[in-house]
User: What shape does this take?
Amino acid sequence: MEKEVFDYVAERAKILSASGASTQVTKDAAQAWLDAVAADENAADEATTKLLDVLEGRPTTIDESIAFAEGPAAQMFGEETAKQMLDSAKERKAQGKKFCGCEACTAASEILAKFGRVEL
Assistant: This one.
């Protein structure tokens, strides 16, 4: 794997492994990638394929973000925060964005896009 691509994935895997917005499955997959490449940098291609397979379908779509903000977000986070989430998601959709803008969804969708698994 080229150093530029390796660094790109590594930066985002670190975000995914630590983000409060990541699911445990995503955190574990990102940490497994980090552990694999730390042990053997030549394992990057295989580890990346495994990470991509886990990430596929995980980033929240913009429409799912809107539905969440219109629904359970108010009970979970309060009306004001839900409204901010909804406004942000609608703005992202108007800009043509396809995924949620949280750090976890952004990192996951960027990795997937880098390898042609999604379009941003």
